[in-house]
């Protein structure tokens, strides 16, 4: 049997997904006996994607080049894998959707502290790609057959996905949440006060959320092995929403508000408690804003304004 | 009639770029430019976010050097809060940095750059890559894979994960190393020293073999900038030193004052800005950063094996060495240094210390964090309000500092090696080798807006008919 042909490309991305593939380390070598990369710009000088069985894309769609590349890959492969949080949900750079393209460009090319650009010129020559109004997930433009979420994706999951495709076995994402994988001790979800990561004294054994830190584990799909909470940092949700959950950020807001320990004191300042939930978009939609209802709502608003 | 040759995407680099070459019918090159294709806008969307979150956000600027962004961000945050990083945390952050250098430098040499030297710049694109190396010399490939793994394991142990590190928090780090961690990592670091020595032994004769190409490609004589500490090569802390083309120090300064010395120019043909030495102006203020710049800027290296390599290098190429392809050589000297430093740090009992965090309070402030990323000097600068929320952010990545030099080097090289409007693939690959030498990270570079950097060549006739695309 010949090797299975694979084409891989990155769109608006950071290369972390490609590093995740390489982080299979020596276990990648036997995989390479079964698959053959026919196109992968990070490693090869072949300049155009040929026809292949499997296509892999990382990154979101940020500009016209990304979109063109995505369509080329989709056209030339039978099975398309969206690799990583940006491809699956739009990812962290999707927070740029909170601003207009003009605002982004003016910040970068005119107003940052070190920039000297008196005439306020944006780059324009040599057919530079056009920046699209928004960062978008790959699935907004083409059919995605397999999603491997994560920032970066778990190398073992990438290996499992590729091998299952080769063997024809189904590849399935976990239906559990990060909390189910987290080794920290859980007891009562009763929040007294929301803490920022530098406030209070962190108990290394106990659930971070129960200590008051905004940890998105309960609203996030399992599969990472709870790496962040294990290392002492709250989950920020890079694996995206849990199975059957429409909106990861809403699930987190619901988790926080339903665990607030309300007393019966009529003088309790509810507004202050709500205000304590700092930066809900940055914390709860860190990786999924482009594919969230929030983003769609914002687009409708902008359209209505115009 | 001027035609444009486009090399797009530039490949075996990180991120998206293309090269545009203006050439007339007789083959005379009038200009060559590096086009960086993307921008993602991190500087904008950091605004309004809590500053302690920045070190966990800027990691998505680059998946190859996330540790550098994490640490430059963490240093800037500590400066914003006005705290001195807890002593053990400082050690662990520095060790994290060496883990990343081992991963990134070995990745660049074996996976991206070596194929040009092992198979030659004219080998077929199907063979001239890491898969070609795996097929031709599987043992070497396994060694390369194991080498990089050492780096990633050090990163995982200190950063929580190898991509998107998470452990640095204001004033410290969330988790320490146990003696069991050290017992596991120290033998690996020692192995990395051996791998580094073997890599240098392998590479030096190859560099020698390609010395003619090294002399021709990418000429861009410049000043050089890098961190030094007591004159030693430094990757984590210290003073920034700028040296001139004669090797003399022009300025040594506290990194937090970078705005006094550095400004950024906006090219019309690239989404990547181009920093320059302010005092000398855009025309004359070209400097470079990188492994070569760092070993040019320092007086010596504090570890014995790497210092011996530096002295041998200086004897052959002088100080400052200017040849662009020597970046590869310098990178391997740093690989050895990083491995030696990892061994030193893991052998020091202080590494399992418990002073992981200091108490901090939010305040209005400004914080600059400067670190040496694998590709060169990286600067993060945040302003915060009294609640520690970011009000302004500025990031200058290593690849940006080298932007002008890459453009100059491309033009110089094109004028030397291109004499026809239809150059052979191998000639265009030599143009890519100029860029590859810088180990540029266009994902970093395009933090400003999302980026892409494969290289593709399109050759059009004046009527717009495509004659070559690869």
Q: Mind explaining what this structure looks like?
A:
The complex is a heterodimer of chains A (306) and B (470). Chain A has 306 residues and is α/β, with parallel strands linked by helices. In chain A, the strands form two sheets. A five-stranded parallel beta sheet of chain A has the order 2-1-3-5-7, with helices on both faces. In chain A, strands 4-6 form a two-stranded antiparallel sheet. The model of chain A has no long low-confidence stretch (mean pLDDT 90). In chain B, strand 16 and strand 17 form a beta hairpin. Chain B is globular, with a radius of gyration of 22 Å. Chain B has 470 residues and is of the alpha+beta class. The longest helix of chain B has 32 residues. The two termini of chain B are 23 Å apart. In chain B, the strands form five sheets. Chain B has a five-stranded antiparallel beta sheet with strand order 3-2-1-16-17. In chain B, strands 6, 7, 8, 9 and 12 form a five-stranded mixed beta sheet that branches. In chain B, 44% of the residues lie in helices and 18% in strands. At the A-B interface, helix 1, helix 2, helix 3, helix 5 and helix 8 of A face helix 1, helix 4, helix 5, helix 6 and strand 10 of B. Chain B: Its cofactor is Ni(2+); Fe cation. Chain B: InterPro entries: Ni-dep_hyd_lsu (IPR001501), NiFe-Hase_large (IPR029014).
Topology of this protein?
The complex is a heterodimer of chains A (306) and B (470).
Chain A lengths: L3 E7 L5 H7 L5 H5 L2 E5 L12 E7 L2 E3 H13 E7 H6 L11 H11 L19 E6 L9 E3 L6 H13 L10 H4 L45 H4 L17 H12 L10 H7 L3 H5 L8 H13 L1
Parallel strand pairs in A: 1-2, 1-3, 3-5, 5-7
Antiparallel strand pairs in A: 4-6
Chain B lengths: L2 E5 L9 E7 L5 E8 L5 H4 L8 H4 L8 H16 L5 H32 L11 H7 L1 H22 L8 E2 L2 E2 L5 H31 L1 H6 L6 E7 L2 E2 L5 E5 L5 E5 L8 E4 L8 E4 L3 H4 L2 E2 L2 H7 L6 H14 L8 H22 L17 E9 L2 E9 L5 E7 L1 H4 L1 H15 L7 H13 L4 H4 L12 E3 L5 E4 L1
Parallel strand pairs in B: 6-12
Antiparallel strand pairs in B: 1-2, 1-16, 2-3, 4-5, 6-7, 6-8, 8-9, 10-11, 13-14, 14-15, 16-17
Helix pairs in contact in B: 3-4, 4-6, 4-12, 5-6, 6-7, 7-12, 10-12, 11-12, 14-15
């Amino acid at each position: 049997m010949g090797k299975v042909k694979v084409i891989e490309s990155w769109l608006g991305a950071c290369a972390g997904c490609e590093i995740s593939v390489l982080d299979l380390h020596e276990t990648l070598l036997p995989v390479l006996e079964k698959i053959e990369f026919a196109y992968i710009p990070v490693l090869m000088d072949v300049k155009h994607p040929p026809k292949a069985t499997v296509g892999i894309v990382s990154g979101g769609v940020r500009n016209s080049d990304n979109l063109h590349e995505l369509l080329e890959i989709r056209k030339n492969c039978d099975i398309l894998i969206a690799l990583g949080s940006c491809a699956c949900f739009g990812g962290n750079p999707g927070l740029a959707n909170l601003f207009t393209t003009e605002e982004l460009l003016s910040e970068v090319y005119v107003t940052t502290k070190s920039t000297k650009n008196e005439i306020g010129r944006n780059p324009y020559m040599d057919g530079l790609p056009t920046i699209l109004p928004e960062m978008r997930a790959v699935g907004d433009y083409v059919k995605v057959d397999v999603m491997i979420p994560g920032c970066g994706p778990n190398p073992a999951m990438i290996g499992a996905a590729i091998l299952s495709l080769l063997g024809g076995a189904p590849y399935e994402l976990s239906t559990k949440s990060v909390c189910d994988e987290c080794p920290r001790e859980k007891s009562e979800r009763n929040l007294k006060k929301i803490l920022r990561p530098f406030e209070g004294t962190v108990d290394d054994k106990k659930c971070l959320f129960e200590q008051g830190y905004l940890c998105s584990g309960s609203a996030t799909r399992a599969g990472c092995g709870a790496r962040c909470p294990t290392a002492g940092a709250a989950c920020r949700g890079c694996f995206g929403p849990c199975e059957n959950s429409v909106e990861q950020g809403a699930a987190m807001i619901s988790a926080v508000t339903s665990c607030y320990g309300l007393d019966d004191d009529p003088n309790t300042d509810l507004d202050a408690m709500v205000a304590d939930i700092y930066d809900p978009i940055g914390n709860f939609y860190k990786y999924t804003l482009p594919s969230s209802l929030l983003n769609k709502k914002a687009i409708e608003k902008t359209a209505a304004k115009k | 009639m001027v035609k444009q040759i486009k090399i797009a995407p530039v490949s075996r680099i990180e991120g998206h770029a293309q090269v545009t070459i203006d050439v007339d019918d007789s083959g005379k090159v009038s200009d060559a430019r590096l086009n960086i294709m993307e921008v993602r806008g991190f500087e904008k969307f950091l605004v309004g976010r809590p500053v302690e979150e920045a070190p966990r956000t800027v990691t998505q600027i680059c998946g190859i050097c996330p540790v550098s962004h994490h640490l430059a961000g963490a240093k800037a945050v500590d400066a914003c809060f006005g705290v001195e990083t807890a002593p053990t945390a400082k050690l662990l952050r520095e060790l994290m940095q060496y883990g990343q250098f081992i991963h990134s430098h070995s990745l660049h040499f074996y996976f991206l750059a070596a194929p040009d030297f092992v198979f030659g710049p004219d080998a077929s694109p199907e063979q001239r890559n890491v898969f070609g190396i795996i097929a031709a010399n599987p043992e070497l490939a396994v060694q390369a894979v194991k080498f990089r793994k050492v780096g990633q394991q050090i990163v995982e142990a200190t950063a929580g994960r190898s991509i998107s590190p998470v452990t640095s928090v204001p004033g410290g780090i969330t988790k320490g190393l146990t003696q069991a961690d050290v017992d596991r990592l120290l033998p690996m670091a020692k192995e990395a020293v051996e791998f580094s020595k073997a890599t240098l032994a392998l590479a030096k004769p190859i560099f020698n073999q390609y010395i003619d190409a090294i002399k021709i490609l990418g000429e861009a004589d410049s000043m050089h900038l890098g961190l030094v500490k007591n004159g030693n090569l430094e990757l984590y802390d210290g003073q920034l030193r700028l040296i001139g083309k004669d090797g003399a120090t022009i300025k040594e300064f506290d990194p937090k004052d970078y705005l006094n010395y550095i400004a950024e120019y906006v090219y019309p043909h690239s989404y990547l800005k181009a920093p320059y030495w302010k005092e000398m102006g855009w025309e004359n203020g070209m400097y470079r950063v990188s492994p070569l710049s760092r070993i040019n800027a320092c007086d010596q290296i504090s570890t014995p094996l790497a210092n011996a390599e530096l002295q041998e290098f200086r004897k052959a190429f002088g100080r400052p060495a200017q040849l662009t392809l020597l970046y590869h050589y310098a990178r391997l000297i740093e690989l050895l240094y990083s491995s030696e430093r990892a061994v030193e740090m893991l052998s020091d009992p202080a590494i399992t210390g418990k002073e992981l965090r200091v108490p901090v309070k939010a305040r209005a402030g400004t914080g600059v964090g400067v670190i040496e990323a694998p590709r060169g000097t990286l600067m993060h600068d945040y302003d915060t309000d009294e609640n520690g929320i970011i009000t302004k952010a500025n990031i200058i990545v290593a690849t940006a500092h080298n932007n002008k030099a890459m453009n100059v080097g491309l033009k110089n090289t094109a004028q030397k090696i291109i004499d026809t409007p239809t150059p052979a693939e191998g000639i265009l690959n030599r143009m890519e080798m100029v860029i590859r030498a810088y180990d540029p990270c266009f994902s970093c570079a395009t933090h400003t807006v999302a980026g892409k950097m494969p290289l593709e060549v399109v050759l059009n006739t004046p009527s717009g008919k495509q004659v070559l695309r690869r």
